[in-house]
Amino acid sequence: MTNFTFPEGFLWGGAIAANQAEGAYLEGGKGLTTVDLLPTGKKRWDIAMGKLESFTPIEGEFYPSHEAIDFYHRYKEDIALFAEMGFKALRVSISWARIFPNGNDDKPNEEGLQFYEDLFDELLKNGIQPVVTMAHFDVPVHLVETYGSWRNRKLVQFFESYAQTIFTRYKDKVKYWMTFNEINMLLHLPFVGAGLVFKEGEDKNQIKYQAAHHQLVASALAVKACHEIIPDAKIGCMLAAGATYPYTSNPDDYYHAMDKDRESFFFIDVQSRGEYPGYAKRFFKDNDLKIEMEDGDLELLKDNTVDYIGFSYYASRTASTDPEVLKHMTSGNVFGSIENPYLEKSEWGWTIDPKGFRITANQLYDRYQKPLFVVENGLGAVDEVTPEGEIHDDYRIDYLKKHLAEMGEAIQDGVEILGYTSWGPIDLVSASTGEMKKRYGYIYVDKDNEGNGTLERKKKKSFFWYKNVIATNGAEL
């Protein structure tokens, strides 16, 4: 039991992404996207970092996104399970290349448009609100090959056309939108975040921040179009969040931790406050970065800020300036971090920090004073199926229970939170490693890292726990 209740109408649910769940990677007229070029194994990381040019799947490599968990063909079965849990919302993404196979086609692909219409209808029929991300780590490959992806200003107009198309088509079905998933990931996994591939000798910072400017302008144009086409909709941004702690009380550590947070806040400062912050301008000056802008860009950013802040929270981070301490970095997470001696870690080396969730939510709300939406949070773990066919994932229940309690505390602190869609309510392909064994779901999918398995769905113990959480609106965790 908890000593508080969550707000009436709180949007409990789960979150998936097209590229990690749908599969059917060339069905229904879909074009290749960047994630379709990420194999498992050693090459994955180099491609994700933009170090290796790869515009077609390499023979002999296994690409988990090509089939994923086959949500494309099984979504009705999966939505029925989400409805059984009582979901109020499901966060999904639209694959840009299902709507415009090349990203810049003259006409949208009707089969792709119809697929998402059917998906949204199925959700609504089951009383589940679609929460839709417009770009979740999948740039059409044609745009990467032909234009260099987001380093090129032309992508702004292509994205605006895509935005107007989907807003017009789904205006009566979707009331919650987000522009770019974990937009700050552009700095850490440039190919995943923005389809960027670097050539020898290029100034990576210059290219990344120029691409960031293009995404920020595209995001503002999408906000503008959404407000014009669907006046009663809400459109937000999305941050890979997690407070950074100084390792010691040394002021140098504190400043370094603040700097690390600002790397991520930079994007949301522009999307939520509508202007480039002073620390970013100084960073550009100190690093001799010249961001090319067109007339009207700054006004566009100022006039078209987001309605809410979507964010993912998995772990906090710890920063130090001491070379000796820096030898003890954690593995697993894309964000480098010092090991925090006060916290446990997951099987993949991610810090487990429920209190950090409350801290992060307060930090974001203090900074932006806009509603927050927790659109990813969960535990990736290896799940074992017993001989009786059961999955006892008490460790997942424990992780989520502690995080939900801290989210409840944040709400009592005065933080406005619209809803909570935990990551991967059904097992899906891991974005970072491409593995299936790194499972997040309440629903088990019979598939292994090599792509073998029946794809059969099974309810885990956490399925029934989360069903009760929703039924009691968080009163019973």
From TrEMBL:
Active site positions, chain numbering: 376
Protein name (Swiss-Prot/TrEMBL): 6-phospho-beta-glucosidase
GO MF: beta-glucosidase activity
GO cellular component, one term: cytosol
SUPFAM superfamilies with a match to the protein in the record: (Trans)glycosidases
Coiled-coil parts of chain: none
Tagged with keyword Cytoplasm: no
Family in the record: Belongs to the glycosyl hydrolase 1 family.
Domain of life: Bacteria
UniProt-listed PROSITE patterns: GLYCOSYL_HYDROL_F1_1, GLYCOSYL_HYDROL_F1_2
